Amino acid sequence: PVGSRVRQGDRIAVVDLLGIAQDVVAPIDGLLVEVLAGTGDAVEYGEEVAVVAEPVVIDDAAAVMPAGGDA
Length: 71
Fold this sequence. Notes:
Layout: E1 5-6, E2 11-17, E3 20-25, E4 30-35, E5 50-53
Antiparallel strand pairs: 1-4, 2-3, 4-5
């Protein structure tokens, strides 16, 4: 599901090509941030079916805290 952590090579989708199931794998370690094609959708060769992005790490907690320190 969207928001899931994935590792490079993990299956993130399956595409049916002439009756043969083909795995679509994560190209990098990261987060599944968007699914672009749904069950039953027709997709072209090379078309993106999902988006995997590298997670953003913020070392300085103050950078994500609102003024006043309330979370």
